[in-house]
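=== RUN LOG ===
request id: a7f3
mode: sequence -> structure
chains: 1
length: 639
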Amino acid sequence: MKRSLQSIWHILAKAGTDGVIFATALIGACVFRAGTWSLPPSFSAAVAWVPVVVVVKTLTFAGLGSYGTLWRYASINDLMRLIRSTALASLAVVTLFYMFAVDLPAEVLFLDAFLTLALCGLARMVPRLLRERVTTSFVSALPSGMRRFLSPAVRGSERRILVVGAGDAGENLVREMSRNESLGYMTVGLVDDDPLKKGMRIHGVKVRGTREDIPRLVAQHAVDEILIAIPSATSAEIRPLVEICRGTGVRMKILPDLASLVHGRPRMSDVRDLKIEDLLGRPKIELDTDSVSAYVRGRRVLVTGAGGSIGGELCRQILRFNPAEIQLLGRGENSIFAIYHELMPRRGETRLVEIIGDVINKKKLEGVFDRYRPEIVFHAGADKHVPLMELNPDEAVLNNILGTRNVIEMCDQFHVERVVCISTDKAVNPTSIMGCCKRVAELYVQSDRWKNSLVTAVRFGNVLGSRGSVIPVFQAQVERGGPVTVTHKEMRRYFMTIPEAVALVIQAGAMARGGEIFVLDMGEPVLIDDLARRIIRLHGLEPDKDVPVVYCGLRPGEKLNEELAGPMERSEPTRHLKIRRLTSNSLTIPDLDSKVAKIIRQAVEMNDIAIRETLKELVPEYRPYLPPQVQSWAAKRSS
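=== RESULT ===
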């Protein structure tokens, strides 16, 4: 009820303001035309009609919705509505004067219409100008200690923002912050490395210097947050900027790559806290969109493990190419439910199908392929945690070997055009159960038995931000106050972002000839110790001072350095500069099948020691590790 009364009073205040303007416009037009305050009789008669004119114009403006908008957010649309309202109201006044024979020169009527438009426009723009420019400049000039004495409406916000980047992205964010008080931000300035922009204003906010001026500006303007709005910047360009900002001690946020945004241009809702991925990522991998679109558009695409980190991102990126259908297959109902409802608002004409099932269950897979008839398959369902698979080798064998073989066999049986399997750098000279099982799965990919499908695999390193990866573990340890546990001071790993990894997978499908493995040019490996210390600093803390770093030793199955290609593999370039093709000789088909049949029986029996022995036969370079739990179990069994 109170809100309704407030709305009525707001409307009456706007109508009253316009009423004064309408009266002023008609009287002013008459005075201007007469050239004196002593109006001739004909003009005096017109002035007597002012109350009627005010009522007619007010009703016309109200009928066209002029009082249903907030004047402080006046826009081009409001200006067009004002022009229409003024034209119709002036026409109504002319008609009224004609009907009652009020004799006025045409110049008076034109002047009245012009003054009405000009004064009403000014009345609507002043609140916006005061809000966006005068208030911001006034509050920004005040010392931080005086701001608390101002009312919230004048103060605007307690969070004072310094925007880094005065380009299109920065302009969009400054405009949104200046217009929307509910966001709780007030922009005190921008910085940009372009010297020509210094001193210029964007929506009333001044460009106050370059990145070198950030520490001074933070102290001078009592900045609460620094917002990095340079979505085109690479990680190498972001890192030195972050070092400068980190020295100020204030919170940092970043606007991600525009290509990752759902909508067209950046909004404040896209801004997020800085992540380690922003500092470790490499130049974005460009897709050959024509070749990808040619094999994905209009097709039925099945993604196994669709609820996982890689599988989910596969679905997001594939959706951009307008497939006829994406079939979301996974054994976790909650994760499949989540990715389905995430994709639904953006699916367009693409159908989405939820399928709960396990690739180990071949009969289930056969039913899925028979019912949905996929034309392209991305196999991302697998067990990936190295230490866990050392303790559960039976699960690794069943999921990573049997599951992959089931998927490929169903694809060949149902004449699926392309099959892309996910592999790992841990399959090269493996020291872990997980890596060894992935290598056996690669042997199936490289087999020449598949006559009806192009089967390929994509091998890559650790994925930044995926579930269970080292980065979330480090972050959780920092948030608990430490210690941060690093296995070995010299351990190095290749890293890539999830979108980067998935782009490779999709591109590989376009280049597949069958039987090959693709790897990405992953740059230089990252020292895990450096990674841990960067994450600590991202939280505004100092390693070994605020949060201790502890070295705990290699875990079961781990090695210091990963490799991307084995000694017997041949590497050759592809048409994509960042992707190489690996080829090698595989085992004979009967030998592979017989040994895999044996290891599957051993997995069903949970015979951990026998599994390791058979894996050694399948992958001679494998050096098995027996964790203490397995050694104890083996000793009891033999006694």
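=== NOTES ===
The chain has three domains: 2-130, 152-274, 289-618.
Residues 337 and 431 are 36 Å apart (CA to CA).
=== END ===
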